Amino acid sequence: MAVYKVKVFSRFERFWHWSQAALIFILLFSGFAIHGFFRPTGFENLVWTHVVAASALIVLWIFAIFWHLTTGNWRHYLPTTKGLFKVARYYAWGIFRGEDHPYKKRFWHKHNPLQALAYLGLKLFLFPVIWITGLAYLLYGFWSQGPITASSLEWVAVIHTLFAFLMAAFIIIHIYLLTTGHSFKEHVSPMLTGYDEVELTDAEKAYLEQDEPGRIIT
Amino acid sequence: MWISKRGFARRAVRCCAAAAMILTGSMVATVQAEEQAAAKAGEAAGKVEIGINEYEDTAKKRPVDKSVTRLGEKPEDKSTTDHAKLKELQGPFSSGPEVTKACLGCHNKAGHQFIKNKHWTWKYHNPKTGQDLGKSVLVNNFCTNAAGNEGMCAQCHAGYGMTDARTYDFKNEENIDCLVCHESTGTYYKLPPTPGNKACSVMFEGKKPIDYTKVAQSVTLPGRNNCGACHFYGGGGDNVKHGDLSSALFKPSKKIDVHMGEDGENFSCIICHVGEGHDWAGSRYAPLAKDTTKSKPGLPRQTATCESCHGVEPHPMSLMGIKLNDHTDRVACETCHVPEFATGGVATKIHWDWRTAGKLKNGEGYREEGYIQGNGEPRHTYKSIKGNFKYGENLKPIYKWFNGTEIYTTVHDKFDPTKPVEINHLEGSPDDPNSRIWPFKKMVTIQPYDKGNNTLVYMHLWGDDDDAFWGNYKFDRAIARGMKDFNLPYSGEFGFVETWSYWPIVHMVQPKENALSCQECHAREGRLKDLKGFYMPGRDRNEWIDRIGIFIVLATLLGVLGHGLLRILFSRGRSH
Fold it and tell me: How high is the pLDDT of residue B355?
């Protein structure tokens, strides 16, 4: 096995990532403004922004889910304990000692085990909770029969808010981890250009060279 | 009727005429120059006038409007009858009842209908609460009670000669006053049924006699000036009581009321207060707080609600419109669409202190002007017959959950005098699906009560005798007599209690551009900051969640900073 420069993030994946990032920033900002931490503009403008951004994100996700399923890219997020401990130990210890990252990207495992687990949690837990509560919040008028549901709406709001805080924490860690490699630039560039260094088996290399020559730089 | 005699006129109103119907009252003896801050806005010169003439407060203006009724803009073109040509109306008539007789000659069911109406009976039995209400029995926190003071208050009874509701013949249809509601010349007027105390002097001296034949021939559907002649002057003066019903609505612009504006729809009152057979919608004793009736297009409307015309999903189907339509089940239309009341330059009374009533100058009652309202007219901030007042204009309503049920504190109900007494307690809560958030004017008054029995009292205000407060200025006698006349227990000792009453703010609806923005309520310190018991986005938050969330974010931040710092420190160590 040898390391090659391979396109690991397709154009759609990069578009998805960056537009999602932008939408999440808009949502966090407008959401906390709605919450009352600050009020840069009227409530209606904030709600409008929040709802439009959330709707766009949902549409984006519908495409993303379709993309994951049809292209098989969901496999990158399969959780595994293999190598998980090594990666965890690296961030807790080895990184300070100047050790190399114990994980080498592979063609069908472009995320390290810890990363894959974190993204899986994000996709299967954090995002769904925020969306479900957000949709419940938005569509409150359709499900609340009778009283203004002092308790039910409050629960929806409370969970939605709590997960917004978790989302903010995720972003902090996500951005911080970009600094842990050789350089910040080197970490960001795959999501811009699509290309990253990946260990390929001979079979994978042969496949790429023959069937997807644009994806591999030799 | 005694009105025919000028003598009465002579006395009638120096004293007091609480015109606009309903209540009257006043009092007092204990003269204490209480606080007295003339209301907020205009601090007038404080002109003092000897005498206690109320007439100019209660009935001076009544410009005829050409408002739109269901006969359209030009009723004379649409009506099937020109009353001026009817032989029955050629007169001559010399009194109101004569005209009424002529009316009932053709409209031979109108009388049967009208004698069931509150404008005639002054009674209302609330089937939901079981309470017996109406002007004939209630105590309010303006002039307090019409009961026993009909001689003045019945100036706004839609009948002739009601000097005492206990003895009045409510079956005599010929005493119905058809003209006050139906005449359209603006020259008709009503006088209090009795002259009152000697101290009360000329009210209508020099007033032109009514040409009954002419007014009888002018009858049509009621315009704003007909309803407004009484309803705009409730509580003893222009806009005193309601806050959203004032002389500014006789000839308003759209800026004052989008429906009644003469530059807009120019609605008469009865366009919304619909009804047939002299029974119409829009009761304040039993309001409809949530109208969910779905009427098919073209079907007649039965209620005076906004929904009656606009439906329950009145906003356009945009993102914003859908969200606004979501609100209509919990928020009354008026809450957003009537952002202020007492607009158009006419102030409303917001505070009344009876304790200072009864001060005299040279042995005579007097009045002080202490407030100049928006339209430049002075308002009285002190009257010997009533005490001190404060006024307000362009006021923000207060907001309460309301399901349409009001529990009145009547003269029979005991209360705890150490706390403010709610004259009309509003039922409703966020947990009650029939409740919505409604806007109200809150009237605060310090008024007499029976200190021994802890009840409100009737005061004998009006009368040509030694007990009537208006003229004698003795609370103890006025209360003792007021209670005795109705066989009510009175301990003999009175005190003053703070009372609150709530007035739904439903008129002075603004053009949509002026409706409240979301921010007015959805903010930490918004208009609804005092409404408890439900979660409102933008206003409420769970403090624990905020703390936990901020902790998580800060801890994460510190964690990564610490991690980064360690990396830097270790890498330095390695480079040596």
Answer: 97
